[in-house]
Amino acid sequence: MKFRSHCRIAAAVAFLLMTLAFASSAAAYASTEKAQTPQQPVQVFDVKAEKVVKTIDNDKQFQKFARGWLKSVTGFAPQLKSDDSCLYVYRVPLLKPAKVKVDQTELVVKEVFLFNCAGKPPLLLVFDEQRRPYLLLFNADTKPFVKKVGIPS
C-alpha cells in the first residue's frame, strides 16, 4: 500500500512537471506570436485519479499566498512519506522568481507545489535553477488558499 502511495505522489509530480514543460514550450511559442506571454495557471492534481482536475487563473491573490508560504519556510522537511491522506497537490507558478533561504542554502524558485495532506503539516516542493527538488516545512496558513481553490470543498 505504501509503495502504491509513493507511486501516486511520484506520478503527480511527474505529471505536473510534464505539464510545466508543455506549458513552457507553448508559452515560448505564444510569445513569438504575441508580445505578451500568457500567465501559467494554478493547477490541482488529484493524486488518486492521477490527473489535473482543476485549472484556475493565476491571479495576484494566488501569488500572495505562494510568496507568503515561501517567506514562512522554517527548514527542510524529511523525506515525504505518503499515504492515502495526500489527496491533492497544488501547483502555483510564480510570475517572478522568488529567493528562499533555508539554513545556508539559497534557492531561486519559479513555482511552488503544495502538499496539503490530512492530519499532517503542509509541505512545499520547490525546484532550484538546476531542477533539483527541495521539500520544505513552513508555517503559513493554507486554509484561505484551499478555500479559494475549492478543492477539497
Automatic annotation (TrEMBL):
Source organism, top-level taxon: Bacteria
Keywords: Signal
Signal peptide: 1-26
Keyword Signal: yes
Name of this protein: Uncharacterized protein
